[in-house]
Design brief:
Elements (H helix, E strand, L loop, with lengths): L4 E5 L3 H12 L4 E5 L5 H18 L5 E4 L10 E4 L15 H18 L4 E4 L4 H12 L6 E3 L2 H16 L6 E2 L2 E2 L7 E2 L5 E2 L2 E2 L6 H12 L1 H9 L5 H15 L4 E10 L5 E12 L2 E5 L6 H23 L1
Parallel strand pairs: 1-2, 1-4, 2-3, 4-5, 5-6
Antiparallel strand pairs: 7-10, 8-9, 10-11, 12-13, 13-14
Helix pairs in contact: 1-2, 1-8, 3-4, 4-9, 5-6
The structure holds adenosine-5-diphosphoribose.
Length: 311
């Protein structure tokens, strides 16, 4: 069987870590693309990773490039092009810089690899993935945004640490926009099926929910730039679900056409990812508080999308 081709748009912190993970997981050949000014970094990372793969005995062709034609025929594109947050910035503050970048990437992708399954990470996430799909005019099953897997991982990590159980046993899902009003669900959060409320007192739960909402900002405050290991790992899980037809149920930013009473926006909801991309959008029975929070988060996302539409 021919090896699969994974295109990474943006060879920065997340792009580089993703390239490493794709090779380590033997997912296929990797193309690390960046702007001409960063082409040598992309080429250097590709060379370094090719040599690492030699040590770990992985057959993978890894190239760095500033020529979009090299992405032709890619099965998956993972988009991290853009600038990350600096301390004190919100994700929405990035829109002025990242909107032209996402438009540039989408218009090139439309020419060279219009049929790839696309996972967008650039922020502000929900608006950037909306714009990417709009420019491409692609079916919604082929363009998805990565935020929910990451936000849920943060939530699960904090809960596991609080309770003193394996992260493996925490079932936690965060829906809504990738911003401060995201919606960590409590109604279906469990330790292997046992309600989370049996383990954590309400006031501690409230503080963990709040820390989850600001989980990205906490890392920006520590490092001066945004997280990259967990975002890369989260995007990898989604790419793997597609490439290996795993039919995984994951929270992700999907284009809504009436689900949850919402339409014409991207928002974090549970989806099933398999060989056809976003194969299903799952509508959960949320409690009234969660539904209200989701509606509020959707309104925030919608206001950013309106800015994008006017720009
Ligand atoms: N085409 C391709 N790559 C681009 C373009 C473009 N038009 N414009 C910028 N880039 C590249 C930059 O040159 C840089 O190498 O995107 C890369 C981004 O890498 P980093 O600055 O290291 O940022 P990173 O931490 O990887 O985050 C990227 O993902 O999570 C989001 O908020 C984050 O929007 C940010 C993005």
């Amino acid at each position: 069987m021919a090896r699969r081709k994974i295109g990474l748009i943006g060879a920065g912190n997340i792009g580089g870590e993703l390239a490493n993970l794709c090779v380590a997981r033997r997912l296929g050949d990797v193309v690390l693309y960046d702007v001409p000014a960063k082409m040598e970094i992309a080429k250097g990372k590709a060379l370094d990773l090719g040599q690492a793969a030699t040590v770990s005995d992985v057959e993978s062709r890894i190239i760095g490039t500033a020529d979009f034609a090299d992405l032709g025929g890619a099965d998956v594109l993972i988009i991290t092009a853009g600038v990350p947050r600096k301390p004190g910035q919100s994700r929405d503050d990035l829109i002025g810089t990242n909107l032209p970048i996402i438009r540039d990437v989408a218009s090139r992708a439309k020419v060279y690899c219009p049929d790839a399954f696309v996972i967008v990470l650039s922020n502000p996430l929900d608006a950037m993935v909306y714009e990417y799909r709009r420019v491409l005019d692609a079916p919604r099953r082929r363009v998805v945004g990565m935020a929910g897997v990451l936000d849920s991982a943060r939530f699960a990590y904090f809960l596991a640490s609080e309770i003193g159980v394996s992260v493996h046993d925490i079932r936690a899902m965060v829906l809504g926009g990738h911003g401060d009003d995201m919606v960590p669900l409590l109604s279906n959060c469990t330790v292997n099926g046992v309600p989370i409320q049996d383990f954590v007192a309400p006031e501690r739960l409230a503080s963990i929910v709040q820390r989850t909402r600001q989980g990205g900002g906490e890392i920006v405050g520590l490092m001066g730039t945004s997280a990259f290991y967990a975002p890369a790992q989260s995007a990898l899980a989604m790419a793997e679900a597609y490439l290996l037809d795993q039919k995984r149920l994951l929270p992700a930013a999907a284009y809504l056409e009436g689900e949850y009473g919402l339409r014409d926006l991207y928002l974090g909801v549970p989806v099933v990812i398999g060989k056809d991309g976003v194969e299903r959008i799952v509508e959960l029975a949320l409690d009234s508080n969660e539904r209200e929070m989701l509606t509020k988060s959707a309104a925030t996302v919608q206001s950013i999308i309106e800015v994008v539409k006017r720009s």
